[in-house]
C-alpha cells in the first residue's frame, strides 16, 4: 500500500469520526422519588430507587391507574417535621446539566389541598407552586425543566415549604449537556435557563419520557397547537417529511433531526402566544428547515419574525442553508411587562413556515453562601446535632428570598459577592453536641446564642472572631478553660455562666465588663483569677502553668534534689561515722501512722474522683 493511500484512508477515517458527532456527555441520573426499587420504564430508562434526599416521607398518588409510568405514581413529600427546607443533593462532576422534575399532587394525602411551595436549583428559585393548582396539573402532574451549571460537585434541588404546606416531587432527572449550548459563551454561566415553552410545530409531544424519539439533551418537545394565536389557527397547515435534514445533531446544541421534519405554514400571519412571567428576560430560539421541495431558490419564501410588536429578523431559509437543512437563530426579549409573549411570522413572499420555537426565562443566579462558611455551617450542623425539624439542608443562606436555616441570620458580604453568617440563635433547642472548631471560619459572626442547651466539650480555640459582639453560652455543660482567642475588642456581652468552665479567666475578656459591656462568669466552680471569682492557685494562668509557676516548679525541683542529696550524704556518710539510729517515740509513730492512713484514704478518693472525671470529659489541662 503506498503511503498516499494510507494517508487518504486516515483522512477518510478522521472525516468519518468528526462527522458522526456522537454525543460526548454521558453523566445522568434518574430518580424515582418515593420509589423503593430500581425500575426500567417502557423507554428503557432505568429509574433509581429514591435517594440523595435530606428528609421527608414517601406516598403514592390516589389514582395510580391514571398515570402511565411507574416513576410517576410514587412521590416524596416533606412534612413540617422535616423542616422548612429540604433538598435532593446529587453528586455530579462540574458541568452544565438539563434538570427535569415531575411534580404531582393527585390528592395523595386525601386533604384536597394542593400545596404551596418553591423549588430552587443551586440556590436560585426556579419554580413556584401556589395553592390551588390548576385542576389538570393537580390531577395529572407536570414536568418542568431547565438548564443549569453545577460548579461545586453536586446538584442541589431544594424545596421550601410555604406556610406549613408539604412540598412534593414525583421524579427528578439530571443529564449532562454541552457547556457551550444555548449561546453560553455570550449569555455567560450566571444564568439558569428555565423552560417556558419548547414547541415542535406541526407535531404531537415527543422526546425522552414521552416517546421513543431521542434527544441528546433529554429535551421533550410539545405540540405548538395550543399556543397558536386564535386569529391564525384556522388557516394553519402542518407539513412533514421523512427526508434527512442536514445540520442536525451538531454541537453545541444537538438539535434533533425530528424537530425539523415537521413544520406549520399558513396563508397569512402565523402567530403564537407564549405564557411568561413579567420582569424577566427571555431567550428565544427559532428553528426552520425548508421541507417543501417546490421551493428551489432564494426569494421564493420570505417572511419577517416579530416578537412583541418588534421586527426581529427577515428570514429566507433557502438563502441561508438551502433545502432540507436546519436553520436556527436566537433573540433575547428584555424586561417583559406583559404575561404573554407574542411571536408573529409576517409573510413577505409566499407563506411563512416554522419548525420550532423555544422560550427560556434567563434567571440570574442568586448569590449564595461563601464556600468556606458553608463548610463551617455543615460542621456546626454535625457537631451541634441539629434536629431534622430545623431543616438545615442545602445552602445555609440562599436563596435570598427564603429564610436562612432556622436560627441563622445572614447578610451579604462587603462586595455583595456572597452571603455570610452574622447570627446564630439556638437558645433552648435541646441541643446535645459540642461546638465545632470550624466556627473559626465564620468570620462575620456578630452574635452567638447557644444558651440553655446540653452542649459540652471545651470552647473551641477559634471562637472569638473580631466581629463577635454578643456571646451567650450560658446554662450548658461546657468545660475546660476559656480560650485566649475570646478577647475580641468588639465584645459587648459575654454570658458564660452556669457551665463547668475552669482555669484563669483571660484578663482581656474580663475587661469587657470594665469597659461598659456585660459579662457573667458565675456558676462555674473552676473559674478563677478576676475580681468576684476566687484567686487562682498560684501557678495557674488560664488553664496553663504560668511562667512563674514553671520557674517555681523548676526551682523547687532543684531545691528538693539538693535536700535529698544532702540527707543522703548525712545518712550515708554520718551514719558510717557515728553509727546510731534515729527512732521517733511511740506516740509519734502512731500519729504518723494515723496521718498516713488518712492520707491514703484521701488519695484514693482523689484518684476515684479523677478517674470518673476522666471518663466524662477530656482533661482541660492536657496539651493543646
Ligand atoms: C439501584 O441501582 C443502583 C445503581 O445501579 C444500585 O447502587 C442500588 O443498589 C440499586 N438499588 C436497589 C434497591 O436495587
Ligand atoms: C436498553 O438499555 C440497555 C442498556 O441500558 C441496552 O443494552 C438495551 O439494548 C436497550 N434496549 C432497547 C430495546 O433499546
Ligand atoms: C419504545 O420502544 C420499545 C422497544 O423498541 C417498545 O417496546 C415500546 O413499546 C416503545 N414505546 C413506545 C411508547 O412507543
Ligand atoms: C385577532 O383579531 C382580532 C379582530 O379580528 C384583533 O382585534 C386582534 O388584535 C387579533 N389578534 C392578533 C394577535 O392578531
Ligand atoms: C424587518 O427587519 C429586517 C432586518 O432585520 C428588515 O430587512 C425588514 O425590512 C424589516 N421588515 C419590515 C416590514 O420593516
Ligand atoms: C423594565 O421595565 C420597567 C417598566 O416596565 C422599568 O421601570 C424598568 O426600569 C425596566 N428595567 C430595565 C432594566 O430596563
Ligand atoms: C438567648 O436565647 C434565649 C432563648 O433561648 C433568651 O432567653 C436569651 O435572652 C438570649 N440571650 C441573649 C443574650 O439575647
UniProtKB/TrEMBL annotation:
It is a single-pass membrane protein. SUPFAM superfamilies: L domain-like. It is found in: Membrane. GO terms for cellular component: membrane. Residues 1-22 form the signal peptide. Keywords: Membrane, Signal, Transmembrane, Transmembrane helix. The chain crosses the membrane at residues 551-572. Residues 34-361 form the Malectin-like domain. This is Malectin-like domain-containing protein. It comes from Erythroxylum novogranatense. The lineage of its organism: Eukaryota, Viridiplantae, Streptophyta, Embryophyta, Tracheophyta.
Amino acid at each position: 500500500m503506498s503511503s498516499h493511500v494510507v494517508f487518504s484512508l486516515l483522512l477518510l477515517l478522521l472525516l468519518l469520526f468528526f462527522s458522526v458527532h456522537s454525543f460526548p456527555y454521558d453523566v445522568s441520573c434518574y430518580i424515582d422519588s418515593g420509589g423503593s426499587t430500581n425500575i426500567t420504564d417502557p423507554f428503557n430508562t432505568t429509574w433509581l430507587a429514591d435517594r440523595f434526599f435530606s428528609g421527608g416521607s414517601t406516598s403514592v398518588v390516589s389514582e395510580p391507574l391514571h398515570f402511565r409510568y411507574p416513576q410517576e405514581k410514587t412521590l416524596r413529600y416533606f412534612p413540617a417535621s422535616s423542616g422548612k427546607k429540604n433538598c435532593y443533593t446529587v453528586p455530579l462532576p462540574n458541568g452544565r446539566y438539563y434538570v427535569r422534575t415531575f411534580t404531582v399532587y393527585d390528592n395523595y394525602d386525601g386533604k384536597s389541598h394542593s400545596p404551596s411551595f418553591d423549588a430552587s436549583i443551586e440556590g436560585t428559585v426556579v419554580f413556584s407552586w401556589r395553592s390551588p393548582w390548576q385542576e389538570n396539573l393537580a390531577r395529572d402532574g407536570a414536568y418542568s425543566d431547565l438548564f443549569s451549571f453545577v460548579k461545586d460537585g453536586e446538584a442541589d434541588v431544594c424545596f421550601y415549604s410555604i406556610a406549613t404546606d408539604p412540598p412534593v416531587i414525583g421524579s427528578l432527572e439530571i443529564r449532562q449537556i454541552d457547556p457551550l449550548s444555548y449561546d453560553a459563551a455570550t449569555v455567560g454561566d450566571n444564568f439558569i435557563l428555565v423552560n417556558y415553552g419548547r414547541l415542535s410545530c406541526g407535531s404531537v409531544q415527543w422526546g425522552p419520557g414521552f416517546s421513543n424519539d431521542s434527544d441528546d439533551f433529554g429535551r421533550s418537545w410539545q405540540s405548538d397547537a395550543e399556543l397558536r394565536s386564535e386569529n391564525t389557527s384556522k388557516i394553519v397547515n402542518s407539513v412533514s417529511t421523512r427526508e434527512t435534514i442536514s445540520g442536525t445533531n451538531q454541537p453545541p446544541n444537538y438539535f434533533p433531526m425530528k424537530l425539523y421534519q415537521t413544520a406549520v405554514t399558513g396563508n397569512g400571519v402565523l402567530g403564537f402566544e407564549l405564557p411568561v412571567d413579567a420582569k424577566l428576560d427571555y431567550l428565544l430560539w427559532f428553528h426552520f428547515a425548508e421541507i417543501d421541495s417546490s421551493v428551489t431558490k432564494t426569494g421564493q419564501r420570505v417572511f419577517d419574525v416579530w416578537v412583541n410588536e418588534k421586527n426581529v429578523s427577515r428570514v429566507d431559509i433557502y438563502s441561508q442553508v438551502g433545502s432540507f437543512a436546519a436553520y436556527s437563530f436566537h433573540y433575547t426579549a428584555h424586561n417583559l411587562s406583559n404575561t404573554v409573549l407574542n411571536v408573529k411570522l409576517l409573510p413577505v413572499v409566499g407563506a411563512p413556515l416554522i419548525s420550532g420555537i423555544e422560550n427560556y426565562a434567563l434567571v440570574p443566579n442568586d448569590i449564595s453562601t461563601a464556600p468556606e462558611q458553608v463548610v463551617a455551617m455543615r460542621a456546626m450542623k454535625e457537631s451541634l446535632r441539629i434536629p431534622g425539624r430545623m431543616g438545615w439542608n442545602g445552602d445555609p443562606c440562599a436563596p435570598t428570598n427564603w429564610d436562612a436555616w432556622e436560627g441563622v441570620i445572614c447578610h451579604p458580604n462587603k462586595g455583595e459577592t456572597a452571603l455570610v453568617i452574622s447570627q446564630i440563635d439556638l437558645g433552648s433547642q435541646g441541643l446535645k453536641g459540642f461546638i465545632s472548631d470550624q466556627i473559626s471560619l465564620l468570620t462575620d459572626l456578630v452574635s452567638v446564642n447557644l444558651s440553655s442547651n446540653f452542649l459540652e466539650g471545651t470552647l473551641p480555640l477559634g471562637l472569638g472572631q473580631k466581629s463577635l459582639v454578643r456571646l451567650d453560652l450560658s446554662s450548658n455543660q461546657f468545660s475546660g478553660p476559656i480560650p485566649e482567642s475570646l478577647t475580641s475588642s468588639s465584645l459587648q456581652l459575654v454570658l458564660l455562666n452556669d457551665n463547668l468552665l475552669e482555669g484563669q479567666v483571660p484578663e482581656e475578656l474580663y475587661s469587657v465588663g470594665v469597659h461598659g459591656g456585660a459579662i457573667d462568669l458565675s456558676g462555674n466552680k473552676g473559674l478563677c483569677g478576676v475580681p468576684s471569682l476566687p484567686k487562682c492557685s498560684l501557678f495557674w494562668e488560664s488553664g496553663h502553668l504560668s511562667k512563674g509557676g514553671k520557674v517555681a516548679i523548676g526551682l523547687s525541683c532543684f531545691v528538693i534534689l539538693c535536700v535529698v542529696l544532702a540527707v543522703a550524704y548525712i545518712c550515708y556518710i554520718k551514719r558510717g561515722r557515728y553509727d546510731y539510729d534515729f527512732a521517733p517515740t511511740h506516740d509519734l509513730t502512731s500519729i504518723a501512722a494515723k496521718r498516713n492512713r488518712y492520707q491514703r484514704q484521701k488519695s484514693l478518693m482523689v484518684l476515684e474522683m479523677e478517674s470518673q472525671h476522666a471518663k466524662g470529659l477530656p482533661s482541660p489541662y492536657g496539651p493543646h
